[in-house]
Amino acid sequence: GAGVSQSPSNKVTEKGKDVELRCDPISGHTALYWYRQSLGQGLEFLIYFQGNSAPDKSGLPSDRFSAERTGGSVSTLTIQRTQQEDSAVYLCASRERWRTGELFFGEGSRLTVL
Amino acid sequence: AQTVTQSQPEMSVQEAETVTLSCTYDTSESNYYLFWYKQPPSRQMILVIRQEAYKQQNATENRFSVNFQKAAKSFSLKISDSQLGDTAMYFCAFILDDFGNEKLTFGTGTRLTIIP
């Protein structure tokens, strides 16, 4: 596709359930980022990938959060045993290898934990 | 660790006027990049403008320009002839020029409203 695609766009789940959020970056973009944005707040860095490797996982809030990227393309963010404080918009972004900081964002996945 | 501070949570301005959004950052490094991103109500973030720290000349993109003061660690965004479509959240962002550290750090944002 032409842009970064995220799915689902909206997810409502019950506390304690696991969820998976998917990101399909722009073709050819080697770097992929995950951020979390709570209502009306800024962007909280979670993790970024260069290819299939994650040099910086420092933003993952707890061990309930994990992410992987396969084939240098699609990435999945998994949240296990969801809590109400996990409710937020999860944004994915990608960029070309040499375009430092120039991220292209998806529209996000809005997660609501009841 | 690098930090980015936006001290204006909200601003509003009349259409066609000029508005300046403030951003300060903290780093001990000398090579880095600064950005302004825009997030309209539709939610999708887009890049507005980019500044390389090694460049003294301020970046300009049409109605958008920056005032980069490296010594003061200040990076403000000026929007000239503001339009209704400029209504959005604006985020300042920082990244080191370091192959091994490509984390983009955002400020908390400024909500800008353009009044007709």
Given the helix and strand composition of chain A, which structural class is it?
A: mainly beta
Terminal residue distance of chain B: 41 Å
Question: Can you give the helix content of chain B as a percent range?
Answer: under 10%
In N-to-C order, the SSE pattern of chain B is: EEEEEEEEEEEE
Radius of gyration of chain B: 14 Å
Weakly predicted, low-confidence segments of chain B = none
Q: How large is the radius of gyration of chain A?
A: 13 Å
Global mean pLDDT of chain A: 93
Mean pLDDT of chain B, nearest integer? 93
Share in helix of chain A:
under 10%
Can you tell me the overall shape of chain B?
A: globular
Number of strands of chain A: 11
* SSE topology string of chain A: EEEEEEEEEEE
Structural class of chain B: mainly beta
Largest beta-sheet characterization of chain B: 6 strands, mixed
Strand fraction band of chain A? over 45%
Quick one: biggest sheet of chain A?
Answer: 7 strands, mixed
Q: Count interface residues per chain for the largest interface.
A: A-B, 25 and 24 residues
Rounded to the nearest angstrom, the distance between the terminal CA atoms of chain A is: 33 Å
3D shape of chain A = globular
Number of strands of chain B: 12
